[in-house]
Specification:
By secondary structure, the protein is of the alpha/beta class. It has 13 helices and 15 strands.
């Protein structure tokens, strides 16, 4: 057994080739939910869904989110209606009293459905509608995710990091904004002052997550701050990682990030925007997988390979390096 921590697109790209190295049924994935948003009353779980859609082989691998060839007629109609009504487009974050009323799982991440700043495909919307309906019926997010996985034919266990709400809020020179508004709408343009994981003090990982973290853990090349940070903000997760074998794949080559705002967010957290900064953020990691061209010298065992991820073969290659790193520090996995 080996457990992956996933957020953003880095770890899903790694998982694309993982089946050639690790048995999917014995390879649970714990997914970040700090990026989740409620859009027009529907709970959208981007990081959970990217893993689900990839495992079901329906993911749009050009964008690495959403469903391949999904239609967007409803999304288009919502935008047209907003234009006709003269309603301002862009993220319309609901007022603070609306953030904590009603459905608890959506706290601090509620947006109006007017104009929809995130493009949601029609079948994708059916997923969110079903998820939200099952939550409203009283089912926890973990059970709802398992139901969706079964419907999509996914063999790999996909686990939300918590059934409690944690919202990633990026504090910028333009004020605080939910990560999705910062990244999707503003394309990470505002200067970052700090990142808050709102609600982490009262959130707890599920028993399923804690059980999965008893096995060796792999942190893929995800953003250490906003993809993995919400998990680490829960004390029980960090304690579990300190007690098991952990291998991490750097999302950097020296100081060059493969994609996304990881460099900007690491700098805002007071760390170097580089592989060295990632290692500083992960003191519990036992070994790292780095790119052949990454000259960073770490104080922990290191396995090098080409860490570029753009195909199934790339994912398999990096997963073999992950297995070698696990062998080096833990004598392999069962």
């Amino acid at each position: 057994m080996v457990t992956f921590l996933a957020g953003g697109t880095g770890t899903p790209k790694l998982l694309w080739g993982a089946d050639a190295v690790f048995d999917p049924a014995a390879t649970p994935v714990v997914c970040n939910t700090g990026d989740d948003v409620e859009m027009g009353g529907l709970l959208v779980c981007p990081d959970v869904d990217t893993v689900l859609f990839s495992a079901a082989d329906v993911l749009d691998r050009e964008r690495w989110w959403g469903i391949d060839d999904d239609s967007t007629e409803t999304h288009g109609a919502i935008g047209e209606l907003a234009d006709e009504a003269g309603l301002e487009a862009g993220p319309r974050y609901l007022p603070s009293d609306a953030q904590t009323a009603g459905r608890e799982i959506a706290r601090w991440r509620r947006f109006s459905g007017v104009a929809e700043f995130m493009e949601i495909g029609d079948y994708d919307r059916a997923i969110h509608t079903t998820r939200t309906g099952l939550l409203d019926e009283g089912n926890p997010l973990t059970d709802v995710t398992a139901t969706l996985a079964e419907a999509l034919g996914v063999d790999r266990p996909v686990l939300p990091m918590s059934d409690d709400p944690v919202a990633t809020i990026v504090h910028t020179d333009e004020g605080p904004m939910h990560f999705q508004a910062f990244w999707v709408h503003r394309r990470a343009a505002p200067a970052v002052e700090r990142v808050e994981f709102r609600g982490h003090e009262s959130a707890e990982p599920t028993d399923a997550v804690l059980d999965a973290l008893e096995d060796p853990v792999v942190i893929g090349p995800s953003n250490p701050v906003t993809s993995i940070g919400p998990m680490l903000a829960m004390d029980a997760v960090r304690t579990a990682l300190e007690s098991t074998t952990v291998v991490a794949v750097s999302p950097f080559v020296d100081d060059r990030v493969f994609s996304g705002p990881a460099g900007k967010l690491l700098s805002a957290s007071g760390r170097e925007a580089s592989t060295a900064g990632v290692a500083d953020a992960y003191p519990f990691v036992d070994a790292f997988v780095l790119d052949d061209d990454d000259g960073t010298a770490l104080d922990r065992p290191t396995v090098r390979t080409d860490t570029e991820l753009g195909s199934r073969a790339d994912g398999a290659r990096v997963c073999r390096a992950v297995r070698d790193a696990l062998d080096a520090v833990a004598g392999g996995v069962s």
